[in-house]
Design brief:
The structure is a homodimer. Chain A is an alpha+beta fold. Chain A is about 15% helix and about 20% strand. Chain A has one helix at about 60-70, and strands at about 25-35, 45-50, 55. A three-stranded antiparallel β-sheet of chain A has the order 1-2-3, with no helix packed on it. Chain A is globular. The first copy, chain A, starts with about 25 loop residues before the first strand and ends in a 9-residue tail after the last helix. In chain A, about 30% of the residues are buried. Strand 1 (about 25-35) of chain A pairs antiparallel with strand 1 of chain B, so a sheet runs across the interface.
Amino acid sequence: MSLARMGTELRCQCIKTESGFIPRRFIQNVQLFPSGPHCSNAEVIATLKSGQRVCLEPTAPWVERIIKKILEGSDRPESQL
Amino acid sequence: MSLARMGTELRCQCIKTESGFIPRRFIQNVQLFPSGPHCSNAEVIATLKSGQRVCLEPTAPWVERIIKKILEGSDRPESQL
């Protein structure tokens, strides 16, 4: 879950990713960083309502589902997802 | 495309959304803000490589496609998507 030093992304920001499920209601926002010259893999960083920033696994099904729900705007905060 | 004042999100950040397609290679990162007490709709804000921040329409098919491509990590920067 640790994050490399932030700032302009000159390299990968996520050293490890959190594989455990995080209920949507704890997530304040999700930031997606495409792969590129600075980092060969895409990175997904969630900022939790606690202020904590967590690297998520971009290809984990629950991450894709949460992002889909956010986009659909059908994410009832109280629901698990 | 204008953005309300930033800072802790106490209200909607996007006054208008950019409906035009933005090629993936211009996008540095995409931030998703779920709907919540502060704002009744989900918001998607792309930071372009120029540094400009642009509000995107969360339900626009091209936005969903670009996010999917980012997650899949199969986004060849030179490709249109």
